[in-house]
Amino acid sequence: MNEPRTVPAEKETPPGDMLTVEGLSVHYGGVRAVRSIDFTVAPGQAVGIIGANGAGKTSTLKALMGLVPRSGRIRFGDTDMTAVRARDVVRHGIGYVPEGRHVFPGLTVERNLLLGAYTRPWRSGRTRRALGEAYELFPVLGEMRGRLAGALSGGQQQMLAVGRALMAEPRLLLLDEPSMGLSPKLVEDILAVLRRLREEGLSLLLVEQNAKLTFEATSDCLVMENGEVVMTGTSAELRDDVRVRRIYLGL
């Protein structure tokens, strides 16, 4: 394995729970999509969220990023994130890979990556180092740095979305359905990247329909149903739980 990515001193992981969520709820008009959930993600921990479509998984991630109406309390390290505006969340060390990738198709691969470093000057040494690390993690992006993002395959766009989020040097990375629409080979490639990021100490919060990927990429999982967390446990425990296999995995 190549040398791990460096973490600047000002980005060192603080002690205690990195992310603490208390009573988080999400409302869309009169619809309550997430119902007063609690969970934590400790420094270096990888947590998965599984559940059927409409369970509230994506809404949970969007709430953490300040993208939807929410209530409850969110703490990240020593910072109360509850009132932090969406555009400022990344500055506090939280990265986000949205469902559907949402790359900028009319911009080059490299320009897409540089947009992920919008919190600091593009020509800074840190930005150039982060760019090199993204190309080292995803060599195909380095080969296609001058190509328009819209010309990439679905798998390459997913790599670009992950690389763009990493450009901000987050301490916690939120990922929403990173395997969606990918071939089994590309799913394995994404799993390898998540394992590497986890080994390097990056905290992960992963929403996935691919249960196999979730259980292999994370240490602990939450099971959501109708906007509520109905089960928690280690990934190994939930993978082998009869109820989870029958109700949520269809096995």
UniProtKB/TrEMBL annotation:
Domain ABC transporter span(s) in chain numbering: 19-251
Claim: Zinc is one of the keywords in the record: no
SUPFAM superfamilies: P-loop containing nucleoside triphosphate hydrolases
GO term, biological process aspect, one: L-amino acid transport
GO molecular function: ATP binding; ATP hydrolysis activity; branched-chain amino acid transmembrane transporter activity
The entry's keywords: Amino-acid transport, ATP-binding, Nucleotide-binding, Transport
CDD domains per record: ABC_TM1139_LivF_branched (cd03224)
Pfam families hit by this protein: ABC_tran
SMART domains per record: AAA
UniProt key word Transport: yes
InterPro entries the UniProt entry points to: AAA+_ATPase, ABC_transporter-like_ATP-bd, ABC_transporter-like_CS, BCAA_Transport_ATP-bd_LivF, P-loop_NTPase
Family, as annotated: Belongs to the ABC transporter superfamily.
Name under which the protein is recorded: ABC transporter ATP-binding protein
Species annotation: Actinoallomurus iriomotensis
Lineage per the UniProt record: Bacteria, Bacillati, Actinomycetota, Actinomycetes, Streptosporangiales
